[in-house]
Structure formats: structure tokens, C-alpha cells
């Protein structure tokens, strides 16, 4: 619920705007899956200890007394000035109200002038449209948003699901990012209805080539559910609170993200837990302790047995040592032999589904209390008992998988290497629908490496790997052939040019942040060419060859096609070539 509106003091508010008595805090937007910081959102505040210290009453009052445009202009200026002072190189999200978005005097020109004044590119800025103003024509907003996008800005739609225009506005804006309202995020892991809403929103967003940012993430349970549903980015107190000097807590934030990512990193190739299932017979719930003891005597290698109800659903677990300790006491058999096993079993049994990824099950097993960490667990299939799992077998399988993945992964980026890339290409070709096969390459990378050293070159390669990984949809694939060569497979080619251009723009931002200041100022650097002669090279650029492979097309050698179009991509002004392939014609450029 929004706080009550404070009495409007026009003179005080005018004074705030005139003096720009505003402070700006920044909150990070992160990708937990990759441990990557995408951006920071600028959050403006009024004077401390005043009625407008909270931004909501301040902006409401400004709207009421006709000062909204002046206030937002001041906030925008303070935000960009403060952002430049942080020295950070991520994207910056700036909130813009619908009234200002459609203002014909404010269609991006002021923002462009402000950015140029501070040496920033429009690619560094995301215009976040707030949903607070009923009555504004969505068609006008969509036209204004397209105008911003044409100038190089990205667009985000704030508080999706909590606004006046809702899905209609979303469909008309076609934003680069949509921000999931915190109402749907709060206790998401405990609310089935919210979970259905969020799953649908994420599916729709990805079908429209928008990335989803979940706001208000405060608990790890919420985070786990969001990651499982496929949310792209998260924002909230779980990662960091808004801070006026985010660079001071940057190291702590990166350590936090590394820890969260390490605990949640999905397996590259999910291993079904069903392989670990030992088909031991379960104990019926109506058995007595004496009968259970007799069952254990016939199964000398069983450490524990599941207890199931009449529908074969596990309701508990009974361990051999637990049973022997009970019956081994003096008069133990006489006292407990006729008791139902439901009286002595442990009801807090760990149950995992047969088709869960190995890493997720491993986290569940090792996350148990220390006293029960080595105990067997129950494996189910659709909730029904399938068999028992031994921790030692789980750890052995997990170790084998990690060794196998390490052998097939690129040692620098840990992305799938040559063999998994070949397997992925074969898989995509077997599908009954088309896909896009992209070859990513860095222009002028070798002379950059020679000039500035391999350590800085490796950082640039890692930056590219992280930013592309953070843009992947659930059905997409990214592999690293080696050096500066990457393979990106996209399940859906919608908005392909915009999506590839967005990756290239983000690489410009992140790669330029790694370049020494003098080379950045000159737009390039001097290094030796292949003939051992010194010459000037432009800054490193990402070039992309994208092959739209039709549903009926069959490609004998993707490598030959990529090599054929590689010179054209390097010569292109935007560093990009898109070619359509089908079974009826030769390759056609777009």
C-alpha cells in the first residue's frame, strides 16, 4: 500500500527542485545464474527528515502541483552526475513517468544532450517507464518508446502486473526489459497462485524477446523459485540495498553473487537421479516393528527403507541402526515389537524426484542437518515410491559428471567446448522447427592481446562470455570454441537483429571499460600487425555471423558457412551479417 500523501507545500517543493536538493541511491540488478551485475537502478530521494524523503509522496505532490517535469529533469541530471562519479560501467536504469515520456519537448533530446555532456553513450541507459498515470494513451507511449529505442536507448516497463494499462501497454511497448512487480515476488515460493502468474509472465516475456527482472527479492526461497521459472535478472535486498556510493560495496556484492551462483549453478547436462535408484521394497504403513525387523534381516545391505501409504506415497523412513537401537535395549522387543512402524519412523525424510537434475539433488542432500547428511534418501517418480538412493553413489556420480564436464568445457570460461557444441548443433538440426546458429568473433583481438597482455585479453573474453550468458533464453545454447570464438544457438529468431545489436552494444560498454584510458580516448591503439609492422588498430569489436536455419534445411558444415561470411561481417558497419538458409535456395542475406 502506498504511503498517505503529505500535505502539498508548493513553495517547499519548488525550492527542492530549484536547488536540486536531491540525493540519488543506486540498487544493483543482477544475474544470479552467471554471478553477473547487469545494471544499477537510480532511485531519487528528497531532503532527509522532510515529508519528501520518501520518493513516492514527493512525485505524487509534484504531479499534483504541476512540477513533475521539472522534478524529473532534476532527478535525471543528479542521477547521471552521481553515476559518472561512481566510476561503474554497468547499465543505468532511469525512471521516467508516462507524462514525461510522451512530452514532445522531452523525446530523448534532453537525455542525449546530458549523456554527451558526460561522455556516455545511449547504450548505457535504460529508460524505465513507471506505471503511475491512468488516462494516458498507450499508443502515444509506444510511439515515444520506439523513438527512444531508435536513438539507442533500451526500454524497461516497471511494476508489470500493478499498473493501469497492464498487458495492453506491454504488448504495444515491446520493451527490452519487463520488471515483475514485487507483489508477485514476495513469498512466491509459498503461493501457488502467484507461481502460476509468474510462470505465465516469464513465458510471454521470452516469447516477445523481453528479459524479465524480478523486483523485491528478499529471500533465497523466492530466488530459487524465480530461477527455476526462468527469470533472467533479480533486484532486491537479498543482494544489496540502495546505496549512494555503490562502488564501496561492489566487492561485497560480487562475493555475494559468486556464493549464490555457485550454490545454484545448473548442470550443463542434467543427470537423472533415476539412475541412482536402488529398487528396495518399501514398508507398508500398517506393519509392526517386529515385521519391519524381519524385513531388514532379509535385506542385509539395506541401510534404510521407505515407509509408504496405500497409494505408494512415502510418509517416512526407517533406518536399520535406529531400529536395532530400539530393539537392542533390555526388553526392547517385548516393549516395541507390536508397535506400528508409524510410531517409530522418521517423518522428515528427504524425497527427491527421479528426473531432478543431479546438482539440485546434491544440494538437497548436503544441505541437510549434519546428523542426517549421510543417511539414504527416497527417490520418487511422480510422487510415488521408486527406490532408495545412497549418498555415496550420489557423490560418486556427481564427481564423475564434474570430471566429464571439465574435460569438455573451455578452461577459461567453463562454457561447453568443441564436442558439446557439435552435439548441440546436431540436436538443433533434428528439431522440427528452425533455429539461428551464430558465430561470435572479436575483431582486432590478437593485436590487443599482444599490446596489452593476455591477462587483460582473458578478462575481455570472460566479459563477453558473461554478458552473452546473461542474455540466454531457456532453450538457447552458448559454447566456447576457444580463443575469442564463440557459438550461440538461438531457439527462436524473433527480433533477431535487435537482440544481436543489444549484445554488441553491451559488449562495447563492457569492453571499453577494460581498455586503458589513452586508447579509449584515441579510439584505438598501436600494435604490430602480422607482418611485424607497427600500425594503428581500432578498439576491439564484436562481429557476428547469424545463420537462420529453416525447419527443412540441412547444413553439412556450419564451419564452412561461417568462414565464408566472416569477411563480410568484419567489413559491415555494424559488424553483423544475417543469412537465411532453407532447402530450396542458396543462402540469402538480410
TrEMBL record:
Pfam families: EAL, GGDEF. Keywords: CBS domain. Residues 273-335 form the CBS domain. CDD domains: EAL, GGDEF. Residues 433-582 form the GGDEF domain. Residues 5-256 form the EAL domain. This is GGDEF domain-containing protein. It comes from Salinicola socius.
Amino acid at each position: 500500500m502506498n504511503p498517505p500523501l503529505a500535505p502539498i507545500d508548493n513553495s517547499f517543493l519548488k525550492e527542492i527542485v530549484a536547488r536540486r536538493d536531491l540525493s540519488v541511491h543506486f540498487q544493483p540488478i543482477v544475474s544470479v545464474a552467471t554471478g553477473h551485475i547487469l545494471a544499477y537502478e537510480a532511485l531519487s530521494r528528497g531532503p532527509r527528515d522532510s515529508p519528501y524523503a520518501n520518493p513516492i509522496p514527493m512525485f505524487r505532490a509534484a504531479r499534483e502541483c504541476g512540477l513533475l517535469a521539472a522534478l524529473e529533469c532534476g532527478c535525471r541530471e543528479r542521477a547521471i552526475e552521481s553515476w559518472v562519479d561512481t566510476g561503474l560501467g554497468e547499465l543505468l536504469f532511469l525512471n521516467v513517468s508516462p507524462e514525461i515520456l510522451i512530452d514532445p519537448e522531452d523525446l530523448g533530446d534532453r537525455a542525449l544532450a546530458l549523456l554527451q555532456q558526460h561522455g556516455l553513450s545511449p547504450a548505457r541507459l535504460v529508460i524505465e517507464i513507471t506505471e503511475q498515470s491512468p488516462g494516458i494513451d498507450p499508443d502515444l507511449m509506444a510511439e515515444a518508446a520506439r523513438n527512444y529505442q531508435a536513438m539507442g536507448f533500451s526500454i524497461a516497463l516497471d511494476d508489470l502486473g500493478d499498473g493501469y494499462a497492464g498487458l495492453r501497454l506491454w504488448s504495444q511497448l515491446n520493451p527490452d526489459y519487463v520488471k515483475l512487480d514485487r507483489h508477485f515476488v514476495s513469498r512466491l515460493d509459498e503461493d501457488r497462485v502467484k507461481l502460476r502468474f509468474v510462470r505465465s509472465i516469464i513465458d510471454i516475456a521470452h516469447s516477445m524477446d523481453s528479459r524479465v527482472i524480478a523486483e523485491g527479492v528478499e529471500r533465497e526461497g523466492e530466488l530459487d523459485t524465480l530461477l527455476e521459472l526462468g527469470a533472467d535478472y533479480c533486484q532486491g535486498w537479498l543482494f544489496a540495498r540502495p546505496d549512494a556510493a555503490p562502488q564501496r560495496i561492489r566487492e561485497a556484492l560480487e562475493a555475494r553473487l559468486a556464493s549464490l551462483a555457485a550454490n545454484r549453478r545448473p548442470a550443463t547436462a542434467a543427470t537423472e537421479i533415476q539412475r541412482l535408484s536402488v529398487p528396495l521394497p518399501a514398508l507398508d504403513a500398517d506393519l509392526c516393528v517386529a515385521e519391519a525387523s524381519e524385513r531388514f534381516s532379509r535385506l542385509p545391505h539395506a541401510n534404510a527403507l521407505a515407509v509408504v501409504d496405500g497409494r505408494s506415497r512415502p510418509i517416512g523412513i526407517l533406518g536399520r541402526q535406529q531400529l536395532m537401537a530400539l530393539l537392542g535395549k533390555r526388553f526392547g522387543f517385548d516393549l516395541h515389537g507390536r508397535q506400528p512402524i508409524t510410531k517409530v519412523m522418521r517423518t522428515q525424510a528427504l524425497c527427491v524426484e527421479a528426473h531432478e537434475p543431479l546438482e539440485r539433488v546434491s544440494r538437497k542432500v548436503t544441505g541437510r542437518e549434519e546428523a542426517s547428511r549421510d543417511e539414504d534418501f527416497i527417490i520418487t517418480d511422480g510422487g510415488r515410491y521408486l527406490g532408495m538412493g545412497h549418498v555415496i553413489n550420489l557423490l560418486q556420480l556427481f564427481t564423475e559428471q564434474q570430471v566429464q564436464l571439465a574435460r569438455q568445457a573451455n578452461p577459461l570460461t567453463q562454457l561447453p567446448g568443441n564436442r558439446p557444441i557439435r552435439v548441440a548443433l546436431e540436436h538443433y538440426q533434428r528439431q522440427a522447427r528452425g533455429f539461428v546458429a551464430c558465430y561470435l568473433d572479436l575483431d582486432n583481438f590478437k593485436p590487443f592481446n599482444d599490446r596489452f597482455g593476455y591477462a587483460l585479453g582473458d578478462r575481455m573474453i570472460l566479459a563477453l562470455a558473461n554478458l552473452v550468458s546473461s542474455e540466454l533464453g531457456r532453450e538457447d545454447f552458448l559454447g566456447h570454441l576457444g580463443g575469442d570464438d564463440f557459438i550461440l544457438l538461438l531457439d527462436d529468431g524473433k527480433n533477431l537483429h535487435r537482440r544481436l545489436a543489444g549484445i554488441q552494444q553491451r559488449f562495447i560498454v563492457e569492453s571499453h571499460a577494460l581498455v586503458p584510458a589513452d586508447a579509449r580516448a584515441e579510439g584505438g591503439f598501436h600494435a604490430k600487425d602480422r607482418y611485424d609492422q607497427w600500425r594503428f588498430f581500432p578498439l576491439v569489436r564484436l562481429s557476428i555471423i547469424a545463420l537462420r536455419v529453416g525447419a527443412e534445411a540441412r547444413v553439412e558444415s556450419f564451419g564452412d558457412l561461417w568462414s565464408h561470411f566472416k569477411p563480410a561481417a568484419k567489413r559491415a558497419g555494424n559488424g553483423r551479417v544475417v543469412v537465411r538458409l532453407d532447402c530450396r535456395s542458396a543462402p540469402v542475406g538480410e
